[in-house]
Amino acid sequence: EIASCLVGSEMCIRDSDESVAEMGSSLEAEIAPQVIALEDRTITLTGTVQAQYTQWQELMQKIYTQERGAL
Known about the structure:
mainly alpha; single chain; 71 residues
């Protein structure tokens, strides 16, 4: 019974490692450019998932700073 539990745990850890690796590679995947229409301009996010997320964060920071002032 203990042996089967240990084998099950090892399989669970292996599956978890594979899931983490898959998530990491998905962040590096290229996706279609995303076009964002703002009141005064249009922004196009390009590159990988991670690159587009970074561009989005920078855009949100600029908008916040313009509307509220520097942090």
